[in-house]
Request: fold
Amino acid sequence: MPILHDYDPIDADPKTKRLAKTEGLGSVTMCGCGTISLNVQTTSIRLDLQAFAQLLLLCSDAMDVLEAMARLVPQPDAVPFIH
Reply:
């Protein structure tokens, strides 16, 4: 998947710390004020630490449900994911 933009929040502020990065997907950064930025391709979401932690739990819960659903339904081979 191509990177749709070249903006890196690290370039904007020397107080910004990169917490994680995956090429082609995005990054998680924290600015000097403590705000967490979740940057996924062209979308950025800014959260305080508590909201970021809640988002991680929410995504984890969703993944658990998806895994349970996958075990119940036979999956055909090589079917692309379409939303």
Remarks:
- Helices lie at 9-12, 49-72.
- The mean pLDDT is 84.
